[in-house]
Amino acid sequence: MIGIVPTDEALRMARDSGLDLVEVSPNERPPVCRIMDYGKHKYDQSKKLKQKHHEQRIKEVRLRPKTDPHDKEIKLKRARTFLEHGDRVQFTMLFRGRERFHKELGLDIFDEIVKELEEIAKLDRPAKALGRRMTMVLAPIKAASPQGKSQPKAKGSSQSKTPKPSVASNQPNQPPPPQAVEPSGDRSSQPD
User: What's the topology of domain 7-52?
Assistant: First the structure.
């Protein structure tokens, strides 16, 4: 806090220190300026913006057809935490030796995994065999945000005119509400 300084003197002070004179609040009288490295300031702002948005990553969980049921439960629990965090999960089934000829075992295990995680994940990429590997990708149904808020902040005058949707309509995979019901009666008397 230096106080009120003439513009020429503030520019000279910034030039002497090797920094920039940045106008922070132009609407104030007198305008508020700061001596800082403007490039570094812009870089820090861009880094903060990138940190606010959760970047979805693909996490991998590896299995084998002979994976013990308890080990499979542990791997499913780990996949559940990835999905709840908002990341996609790629399940990779590794086949060795004679297991390569029984890929239906891998498909059965993948079907069980999809059924186990269906309340928090949807199938993003179905099971696909490539050589000794079979892969499948699950994506979270509702992406988690870093602040814990899952609803977007879109409030304004346009939303005040429209009625709020019910909670049931926001649920995924729910059928739409019925529109109109045809009157019951003898259909043979109606013209075609």
Answer: Ubiquitin-like (UB roll) (3.10.20)
Give the 3-state secondary structure of 41-108. HHHHHHHHHHHHCCCCCEEEEEECCCCCHHHHHHHHHHHHHHHHHCCEEEEEEECCHHHHHCHHHHHH
- Alpha-carbon gap, residue 106 to 116, rounded angstroms: 15
Q: Count CA within 13 A, CB hemisphere, residue 9.
A: 5
* DSSP string over 129-161: EETTEEEEEEEESSPPPTTS--S----SHHHHH
CATH number for region 58-140: 3.30.110.10
Contacts of 32 (CB under 8 A, 6+ apart): 23, 24, 25
Q: For each of the chain's 192 residues, which pLDDT tens digit applies? A: 778 888 889 899 989 999 988 888 888 888 888 898 989 989 988 888 776 666 668 899 999 988 888 999 999 999 999 999 888 999 999 999 888 888 888 899 999 999 999 899 999 899 988 889 999 999 998 754 444 444 444 444 444 444 443 344 444 455 555 554 445 555 555 555
Run of H or E residues at 180: none
